[in-house]
Amino acid sequence: MKLVAIASYLEGEGKLSQLWSNNEEEMPTESHGQYISAIYRHMQIAISAELAPYRIGSGQYIFLMAIAFGQPITQKALSEKLLIDKTTTAKAISKLEVEGYVRREVDTSDNRYQLLFLTEAGHEVVPKVQEALARVKNKTRRGIPDEEYDRMLSLLKIVLHNLTDQEQGGSE
């Protein structure tokens, strides 16, 4: 319900930043983080609805697609590629495995690792997932010219780099 309230508020005269202001006299400042967070939540809801027929949650599709276009891949390499912690990766892979979309095989070059592959069902569902994701992406792009969309992506990459660089001990 909170998302509905935020969306309703945004459609009115207000700004998202005013929801976080702790003082009515304080001049609220807008933060890109507030919008990124709201966009993420709304996209997760839309993606979950699109992928529900395939029993793939919004938390699993990214792993499915990364395996599809990078197999074979180890779970560790997958975590690093997606910048997602190992525990989250393990849970997502387990769910995809239970649904019959992913299988594991021992890495013959190093028995300590298991390689991830798509099953036949995984190969069959990937185009359906791509179509579902395209529908959500097209919805988010409505009214945004290609040049502006590309610029937005460039700026978001810089923000991500700034944050991940700091996490890895980088500084300005």
How would you summarize the topology of this molecule?
Elements: H1 2-11, H2 32-51, H3 61-68, E1 73-74, H4 75-82, H5 86-98, E2 102-106, E3 114-118, H6 120-141, H7 146-167
Antiparallel strand pairs: 1-3, 2-3
Helix pairs in contact: 2-6, 3-6, 4-5
| Spans of at least 5 consecutive residues with low confidence | 1-9
SSE class: mainly alpha
Rg to the nearest angstrom?
A: 20 Å
pLDDT average, as an integer? 85
- Global morphology: globular
Number of strands: 3
H/E topology pattern: HHHEHHEEHH
User: How do the strands of the widest beta sheet line up side by side?
Assistant: 1-3-2
- What proportion of the residues form beta strands (DSSP E)? 5-15%
Please give the alpha-carbon distance between the first and last residues.
40 Å
Describe the biggest sheet? 3 strands, antiparallel
- The number of helical elements comes to 7
What does this structure look like?
- This protein has 172 residues and is mainly alpha-helical.
- The protein has helices at residues 2-11, 32-51, 61-68, 75-82, 86-98, 120-141, 146-167, and strands at 73-74, 102-106, 114-118.
- It has a three-stranded antiparallel sheet.
- A hairpin with a 7-residue loop joins β2 (102-106) and β3.
- The longest helix is centred in the last third of the chain and has 22 residues, at 120-141.
- The chain starts with a helix and ends in a 5-residue tail after the last helix.
